[in-house]
Structure formats: structure tokens, C-alpha cells
Amino acid sequence: MEKTGIICNPMKGANTPVPELPEVECIVRSLRRCLAGKRIMEGQLISPAMLRGITEERFRERLVGKIVTDVKRRGKYIFFFLHEGSFLEVHLRMTGRFVYLPGDSGAGRHTRAVFFLQGGESLHFEDMRKFGTFRLWHKGEEANAASLQRGVDPLEERFDRDVFDKILKKRPRCRIKSLLLDQESIAGMGNIYTDEALFRAGIYPGKKAGSLEKEEKERLFQCICTVLQEGISKRGVSFSDYRDLWGGEGEYQDCLRVYRRRDKPCLLCGASISRTVVAGRGTYYCPECQKA
Hints:
Distance between the termini: 55 Å
Number of strands: 11
Low-confidence stretches: 1-15
Oligomer: single chain
Helix content: 10-25%
């Protein structure tokens, strides 16, 4: 049977970017609308190796019969909260994605898990490269979940200018792009939105964090918040076959100013966009607007 459902991951394939904060936020918003208040009637683990810290039998035993009360995000992690207080932690990694199907459908080639829901719907987790992970936490174990204790999330209220300044001061010799990508410092930033924020702020990606002037810090803080919110409002970046709840593609790839625009003219000054490598990641910048 051909699958027709909600594909909740914008990225596909080894040569496309992994989901970043805006994409995961869009995934979570779709999942919340589909799952909140639904009971998990049955679970099928096709690839038990994706589980962390629990056996397949114990995982199914603890999950089946539970009601999903909410779906939330922190950084790039997704959390399914259950009515008795436990919660399922999911990391999509490179190619993981959720597909919500209104009827009974067979597992696809890359399906790793299927959750059958009250009402007849099913939630499939697909992962071509098998890097995605599931971990089920007991009630009260929030303090043990490393994913909940990582760096500040840029969409949290506590992420303000003072907190950002403290993050920069803690690692002054670190290159600014490397610092922004460090999930222990800021949870959720990825390659695309980091390059875009640095371009908007006019800061060279290899510049040391401790060398930023006050005005540069202020611009960068604001640009981080702006590009993330823009990414969410445009439903993420679709370099492949991402579809939202209504079957539409993300649109933020049409708004990118430097990412994947090597040798194309800068939209501000006309200079050719350059590509280098910072923190092991392909990095796009304008050599005129972001002078080294």
C-alpha cells in the first residue's frame, strides 16, 4: 500500500543537512496536534538496536496503553510525554523521520518502529541510515536525561543577552561558529542557521568568541533569534521532500543568503560567496561582509 501521510522530517539522504532546531520544532508542532490525547495501543520495533538502556520487551511493556499528553522539543531532541509521568526521548540524527498515517499501512523499507494509536492511526519512525535513537525515561528522571541538561535552548525565555554574553566569555579562544555549534553551549543550532546568523551579523565564522565587540555580540544575539524564528515561520528548509501537515514544503531554503550559495553573488554587496571549513563543517560566508 502506498503511504500517504504527514512526513515530519524535512531532510532525506546522506547529502542533505540534518534537521536543525526550526525543522525539529515544526516536526514537534505537527506531532503534538496529531498525538496529544491519543493512547498507544500497540508498538512494533523493527530495529531494536535503536533503543538505548532498555530491552525491546520492556520498552513495549512500558509504552503500550499509555496516553500521549504532550510532545515537546529541546535542542534537536523530541520528547513524548505520557500520562503517568514517563517520557520517550527521540533523536532523529541524520535521516530519522516520523510519518503519521490515518489508516493501517504496512511498514516501509526504512521503517524502524510503528506505534498504533487509539482511533486507528499509526505513527511510523523511518530511518534510512539507522542512526536515530529512542530512550524511555521513568517519571522523575528528568535530571538524568542529558538531553534536558545540555546548553540553553535559543527559544527558551532564559536565553537573553546576558546569558549569551556569558556563553561567549566562557570560551573566548573558541571560534565563534564552533561555539555556536557546540550543543553543550547552545542546544539546537546547526550548520545552516549558524552560517545565516553569522552573515546577518557581519561576523567571520572563524573569529574568536572573545574578540567580538559589544556591538557584534548584540547583532549576533539578535540575528540568531531572527533566523530561527524565520525558519520556523517558513516551515523549515526543504532541500528534499519535506512536507508539512497540509502537504506543503518548507520555504526557508528560498530565504537563505549564504548557505549553499558558493560563487553566487552576495545579496548585499555583490561579492562571490566563499566556502571554507570550520569545526569540520562546510561553512559559507561573504568575504566582504564578513571580513576575516
